[in-house]
Amino acid sequence: MEIRPTTDQDLELFVDTVFAAFGRFRESPAEGDGLLWSAYEMDRNLFAVTADGRPVGTAGAYSFELTLPGGVLLPVTGVTAVGVLPSHRRRGVASAMMRHQLTALRARGEFLCVLLASEAPIYGRFGYGLATCTRQLTVPRHRAAFAVPRARGTADAPTAGPDTGTDTGSFTGSDSGSDGGSVEVLRRAECGEIMEEVYDRYRRAQPGAVSRPHRWWASGAGQPPVSRAPRYIAVHRDADGVPDGYASYSLGESDTLTVDETIATDDTVFTALARLVLGHDLVGRVVFKHFPPGHPLRWQLADFNAGQLGSDEDWLWVRLLDVPRALTARGWFTDGELVLDVDDPFLGEHGRYLLTVRDGRADCVPTDREPDLSLDVRDLGSVYLGGTAPSTLVRAGHIRAHHPGAVTVADALFRAERSPHCLHWF
């Protein structure tokens, strides 16, 4: 078996092999939808081929930026389209492709990569750690009344969302918000540039978010609202008329209004958009997909129990390829030092590093000092963005703390300014 890079001429064969690996057939995209593979970067993809040249496995890579704690923007590879034909599974094909890919990324000077896993148990053995989760929030429409804010100086808010008028076939309208801004309901085809600009502003300030390159928006690649599938887009504008948030939604046959994603530059904008969808007529329930962790919406409802959170699902996985470079790249919010003993069994590597943080910046160098924590590189990936506390993995039996104080220091050091969250599907 050989691992070889693909070219533009391999696109059709690459796509067919990916679909065969997942046991699916190509289907014509829905109305206005784009082809996912229109965003493939064929100069970065790989084939695993047999001696006679037949492809039996695929692995792809996208070029993104990842927002790290502290607002650091880092070029990162988004791994995708990893699949092996059923006839060649359990023969080490996936491992060979992953090892080849990681080696190639290092040769490019990269020290971090990410992916979304179709099957969660697979990628830990390749050194990826689960760094962010996602979940849904479901709110029955008849229980969606908002409470009156109790903080002094907070303007009283209405107890129901504004009437959007979206039951009218060709409606485009707006409504003033209690935050001094306004919300306008548009169709997906009318506001692609607005969404692209607002998302880019949002992702630059959100740890764990990845960029959406222009070619994704231009080709409609991926899932709504990046794709051009019919959607209503509630666009929020600030008091000066500048767009600063949007919610993409559709109403299904079961009277369920599904919000694909809510992008907001602050909680006030999110609340204004939530009021709109929760106040929509002819709706039995509203489902917010990818509900941000720690968001106060449930507390803003008159009935806290009206908002039902679904179970956590794994989302963004992080893989460190160079521990010192990765740790010195992100921002830090507490001074301190730790000695980390890091094992990387997939690449057959081991290192011990002294991490020293002062005034928001880190230094990380090899050391022979006794370790404070011993951990697998996958566990370092899980805590890297601040979404998982090291103490959680100590309690789970994955990280070994060599003395009690190490856990306290690690939790304080690895926290982020806000919970990491990733919305982009790739």
Can you tell me about this structure?
By secondary structure, the chain is an alpha+beta fold. It has three domains: about 1-110, Gcn5-related N-acetyltransferase (GNAT) (Aminopeptidase); about 135-310, Gcn5-related N-acetyltransferase (GNAT) (Aminopeptidase, 3-Layer(aba) Sandwich), CATH 3.40.630.30; about 330-415, Nonspecific Lipid-transfer Protein, Chain A. Helix content is about 20%, strand content about 30%. It has helices spanning about 10-20, 95-105, 190-205, 215-220, 265-280, 295-300, 325-330, 375-385, 390-395, 405-415, and strands at about 1-5, 45-50, 55-70, 70-85, 110-115, 130, 135, 135-140, 175, 180-185, 230-235, 245-250, 255-265, 285-290, 310, 315, 315-320, 335-345, 350-360, 360-365, 375, 400. The protein has an eight-stranded mixed β-sheet, with helices on both faces. Strands 1-2-3-4-5-17-6 form a seven-stranded mixed β-sheet. Strands 20-19-18-21-22 form a five-stranded mixed β-sheet. Mean pLDDT is about 90; it is low at about 155-175. This is GNAT family N-acetyltransferase. Keywords: Acyltransferase, Transferase.
